[in-house]
Amino acid sequence: MNHRPARVAAIHDLSGFGRCSLSVILPTLSTMGVQVCPVPTAILSSHTGGLGEVEFRDLTSFIPASLEHYQRLGLDFECVYSGFLGSEEQIDHCKKYFASYPEALAVVDPVMGDHGKAYRTYTEAMRNRLGELVQVADVITPNLTEACMLLKIPYISEGLTRQEARSLLAKLGELGPNFVVVTGVQLATGGMANIGYDKGNNSYWVVPCDYVPVSYPGTGDLFASVLTGAFLTGDSLPIAMGRATYFVERCIKTTFSYSSDTRYGVMLEKELSVLTDSANQKDFSLL
Asked: For the residues 81-92, what does the mean pLDDT come to?
């Protein structure tokens, strides 16, 4: 019997400083017992959130080369997971990765923007074309800014009612994915939450988030990683959301307690051990 770990092709950038993208995806999924095969879209000396001018190396040509190599060797993946992409050409390469492993869980984290604004590297053409990846995805994990971009609607700055939240999730589901999770949503009832939709079961879920008055880079990457690892180890959508929310909150609270420079990201190293116990999760409820 083959007892090897689930294997993920993680198509994302690699930032050398600041705890985000592949530098947090690798330890997080590895701790959950999942093998990560990184497919870097670019290498950066640090993330671009306030650490000065960044040394950047584009790796577009590596993506198809890696796929050709894996297929030549007959290597399989249980999941293909895409994150930060640097060009329209990389979107095309990701589509080929997904098409080459049709049985694999297809996870798309549509890294496009936050706080109501697009990241400076994402052109309008790229934002429009990212829907092509969403269409073939099993799971998508946008934040609220990215959800609005995918739906081509203005950014929602007011708290969402229960019906508005369900409508937002359903419309995203109509784009193609079976599972939708939108992170960092302000609710009309007060407080923040992560909300999710299981299209197959027509069920809507909400996991409340504890408020901490600070923002760190890489938390979306952490959330998507834990969610992916939970799916690959057999969890349902609400349980996966609960585990991902719990871990990210622990990392944020720990880092905040040390008054660490926010640009350095969260101290996930101190919290990785909580991922080994699947009981570590936030409560969830129907939305």
From this structure: 96
